[in-house]
Amino acid sequence: MTPTDARGTPHHRCDDRGKLRIVSLVPSLTELLCDLGLAHAIVGRTGFCIHPADEVERIPKVGGTKQVNVEKIRRLAPTHLVVNIDENEKPTVEALEAFVPHVIVTHPLVPRDNLALYRLFGHVFACEREADRLCARFEAAWAALAEAERVGDRTARRVLYLIWQDPWMTIARDTYLAAMLDLIGWRQVDVRDALDPSSPSSPRYPAIDLPRAARDVDLLLLSSEPYRFTETHVAALSALAPDVRLVDGERLSWYGSRAILGLEYLRVLATGAGPANDDTR
């Protein structure tokens, strides 16, 4: 059976990897492609595609995840484009579809969606063995987290996860990031009654009235990205919740191969077992 992407589009296997020319408009997917042994086939990336640093450095930039240089991508003559429903603008993707033969649309919503993502890329780009290795590593990290949860403190906590300042922005409960936090009983609060009407935003990443949204939360989480919160913010917001802390946004929000590090990081957060190495693969 031919695998399909997030839009239900089937994608056939490219048996001649030497002909691959891939443009990635998603940082986590660029990293995944590299971890599948496809760095040589990537001809374009965004400026936010920073991992693995030694491999992406040579790959031309084609803009950001939202602002994309369509003509530059046209000149690169890609055979494949990889995008994400949350991260890339639909009109941009539609413009690129006019000349890119194969557009792979992704939209992981829960952590275990990564397994289908690995297998999809493994099939399309003829690297099934590498995809199987990632699946095995994911399952091992999943099992280790489940065991840590079984023997550890399973007390549920009400959390508010901040991704931006000016305006204050958070995540909806149906996002991939919220599903990651759910794995350790950290439940993102419902902020629909604390929206900031003066700051238009998307329902999945809403702008909020922070004091109102933070009422009765157990834990206020300040992400390292896309906005880089610091210890100064922790101190300034300490009166809003019993526990205010910085967290690694890449590990919690990036799907793809970094999701494996994310599962290991969740185990650390849940157990306080100590930091995990940043780029252990």
Care to describe what's here?
With 281 residues, the chain is of the alpha/beta class. The protein contains eleven helices and nine strands. Strands 5, 6, 7, 8 and 9 form a five-stranded mixed β-sheet that branches. A four-stranded parallel β-sheet has the order 2-1-3-4, with helices on both faces. Helix 5 runs antiparallel to helix 6 and helix 6 runs parallel beside helix 11. The C terminus is likely disordered.
Strand percent estimate: 5-15%
Q: What percentage of residues falls in helices of 4 or more residues? A: 25-40%
Task: Find the structural class using helix and strand composition.
Answer: alpha/beta
Largest sheet: 5 strands, mixed
> Radius of gyration over alpha carbons?
19 Å
Give the domain tally.
2
Overall average pLDDT: 94
CATH topology of the largest domain: Rossmann fold
- The helix/strand series, from N terminus to C terminus, equals EHEHHEHEHHEEHEHEHEHH
The CATH superfamily of the largest domain bears the name Nitrogenase molybdenum iron protein domain
| The CATH top-level class label of the largest domain | Alpha Beta
In the CATH hierarchy, the architecture of the largest domain is: 3-Layer(aba) Sandwich
Distance between the termini: 30 Å
**Could you tell me the number of beta strands?**
9
Uncertain regions spanning at least 5 consecutive residues:
275-281
Q: What is the overall silhouette?
A: globular
Number of helices: 11
Write a compact overview of the structure shown.
The protein has 281 residues and is of the alpha/beta class. The protein is built from 11 helices and 9 strands.
